[in-house]
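hey so u asked for the seq, here:
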Amino acid sequence: MKKKIIFMVINMNVGGTEKALLNMIAEMPKENYEITILMLEKYGDYLSSIPSEVKIEFLNNYNNLKDILNKPPHKTAFRFFKIRKFVKSFNILNSYLISKHYKDRGIFFKYILKDYPVIEKEYDVAVAYAGPMDFISYFIINKIKAKKKIQWIHFDVTKIGFDKHFALKNYKKFDKIFAVSNESREKLISLVPEFNKRAQVFSNIVPTELIRREAENGEGFNDNYCGLRLLTVGRLTSEKGQDIAIRVLARLINEGFKVKWYCVGEGSSRGEYEKLIENYGLRDKFILLGKTQNPYPFIQQCNIYVQPSRHEGYCITLAEARCLVRPIVTTDFAGAREQIKNGETGLIVGVDEDEIYQGIKSLLINKDLRKKFKNNLENLQIDNRREIIKLSSLV
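ran it, structure tokens below
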């Protein structure tokens, strides 16, 4: 009999968390698991990438909850007050203030989900996969029936708005907490040492054969550029560090290097970055390619892959660049040293404009070093079996 597993996420927008989920599902034997993905909202380019055998469900009436969850409660309460829904206005504000007083957002979640029934179907494993996202954690704990429950941590919790008080009260209700790298686990334990025995590392799965096949099948660069190509893949947001990359490229161009820097991804900082590109005179040198479901041809065809992130949990695009044996320069975020051996399979530099500049420059002028990194990466084997066994053992 197939084991029933449900993963809960926000949506299936193009991002590392969503890609990691698809990669893991691809490695799970179809004959052993009945998989469901429960989303808060029906949104994202990766919706079409979900395997046909996976069940897709959406949270009913989430549109009615979204504003209450994401907007300041006093503004939401005032909005209901203006349309003469006085009781609802009072209850929203009151439950929020009580949750603030007791430092437990669960009180607020309990109110807004008071009319939402527990899902009837029982699962073998229920996973709060988009973690840490407190609403999803609360929903898995209180509204889904499952023999085992798992909280997934995808980020460096010291760099985001992590609610320690919510975690202390609620994470103990999970059977296991998975963090995507040793360092992201250590950062979690530094904030909540009570979870030292409960937290375990579950590295993001890299489907090597699929990535290499997709790299050959898709389309990559089409600008007939003859110089060296730098590439970064990731959302256009401050945490991914593309603003640093723009300044670094300006220095490289000023020194006379024949190089272009391409970025695959989309995000809220596009407008800011476009202005920065204009200010540095890099309109035809720093290229924003937009988002794509298949970045692998670009990764395979670039000369140097650069990950200038300010923080990560486990950078899946870095793992993909390793899989496609690209010379790599990466900043020293959580999990980077678990993927790259500095000076052997890539360069690890500080989250600093000058260090990133020096790292890239050393690879641009040293063809033998680029070749060394590629040769060393080719000799590495990525084994996903260990992680699938961890999940199977819980079932």
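The domain at 3-206+387-394 is CATH 3.40.50.2000 (Rossmann fold). The longest strand covers residues 119-128.
lmk if thats what u needed
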